[in-house]
Design a protein that fits this description.
Blueprint lengths: L9 H5 L5 H8 L3 H8 L7 H14 L5 H8 L4 E6 L4 H18 L2 E6 L5 H14 L3 E4 L9 H7 L4 E5 L8 E4 L2 H14 L4 E5 L6 H14 L6 E5 L5 H11 L8 E4 L2 H13 L9 E6 L2 H5 L5 E4 L2 H17 L12 E3 L11
Parallel strand pairs: 1-2, 1-3, 3-4, 4-5, 6-7, 6-8, 8-9, 9-10
Antiparallel strand pairs: 10-11
Length: 350
């Protein structure tokens, strides 16, 4: 029978979230012992730990992040430092980080910082101080700012960097062989018979752009009758269009163009369509990143796939291990590979 005079708060009590006291009562232990298990203390024997973990699972208990942070004098926050306009790339990276932080009881804070040497370094240090993050994952090009690794070390902020070139000073670096990937692109096009090649570079201030160019140019140099026409780009769509217009204007236009990221490659495809050039019949196009954009374009873009989610997850595991003083995971070496799609084909016959 329904109570005609329910007490205020009775319904709330029935549906209240379980507390650490509930877990302790269910497991027949003290609150302090439950706290030790939650904080991964070795001072609890295996049998008691199993009983507490079973109670946590049965009650669907989720510890308060604030209480845990106060108890351990940590924030359980991880910061992501970037200077990237590519939302598709950032989305994949954030998903990779959260796939790990969600399991480990951490939260993610994302911070965009200006790329300007000392200004970038000061901004990162200020962010780390204000947010009180337990550690940082630093993406390129910020990870390449001179002196940043030392400044973070001096501020006692654990940090893991992602980079296309080796970096000194960081405790951990996830390194991608973008030079090797650039060479893969050149080999793919050369094997299809292309000899007049175009290259839309990324910003020369960024190591990633320099590495991709070096790999591509180096591989082409080994084929005597092949040539490369280069244009400048900034990883943006408009620069890809401008570069394509310049490359495709002359009578000896390239039969294939490598754009140093997918967004610029999309600009190349747009110009080719405006000019009535068939892709890949008259022009082959390759991008770099293997982002969702590559699949969304028509025709689907041949691109170098960078496993952003796996890279981000590996960086996060390494960082949390350093923060918590546990064994470091095995080194992660991401594989970058060209994924042929609909924008590349045999060179047109003269």
């Amino acid at each position: 029978m329904t109570d005609p005079n329910p007490q205020p708060g009775a319904d709330h009590a029935r549906h209240a979230e379980p507390t650490i006291e509930d877990v302790a009562a269910a497991a027949g232990v003290s609150i302090r012992t439950v706290s030790r298990v939650l904080n991964k203390s070795p001072k609890v024997n295996a049998q008691t730990r199993e009983r507490i973990e079973a109670a946590i699972a049965a009650l669907h208990f989720r510890p308060s992040l604030r209480a845990r942070a106060l108890a351990m004098r940590r924030s359980f926050l991880i910061g992501l430092i970037h200077n990237d306009r590519n939302a598709l790339v950032l989305d994949s990276i954030q998903r990779g980080i959260v796939s790990v932080t969600a399991e480990q009881g951490y939260e993610l804070i994302v911070h965009s910082t200006p790329l300007a040497g000392d200004a970038a370094m000061a901004d990162v240090i200020d962010f780390a101080s204000r947010s009180r993050v337990d550690g940082l994952i630093v993406l390129p090009p910020i990870s390449g700012v001179a002196g940043l690794a030392g400044a973070l070390d001096g501020a006692q902020v654990p940090a893991v960097a992602v980079s296309s070139v080796p970096l000194d000073g960081f405790a951990g670096v996830i390194l991608s062989d973008e030079r090797g990937a650039g060479a893969q692109v050149a080999r793919h096009l050369l094997d299809l018979g292309h000899r007049r090649l175009g290259l839309v570079n990324g910003p020369t201030t960024m190591a990633s752009a320099r590495e991709r160019r070096a790999g591509f140019i180096g591989e082409v140099a080994g084929t005597a009758d092949a040539s490369v026409a280069e244009t400048a780009g900034d990883y943006g769509f408009a620069s890809g269009m401008a570069a394509a217009q310049a490359l495709l204007a002359g009578p000896d236009r390239p039969t294939a163009i490598f754009a140093a990221n997918d967004i610029m490659a999309a600009g190349v495809l747009k110009v080719a369509a405006r000019m009535g050039l068939g892709v890949p019949g008259q022009l082959s196009v390759v991008g770099f990143d293997g982002s969702m954009l590559a699949q969304m374009l028509t025709p689907a873009l041949t691109s170098v796939l960078r496993p952003f989610d796996a890279i981000a997850a590996a960086a996060t595991r390494h960082l949390i291990a350093r923060i918590e003083g546990t064994a470091l995971p095995a080194p992660f070496h991401p594989t970058l590979a060209i994924v042929p799609a609909e924008t590349t084909g045999p060179a047109p016959k003269s």
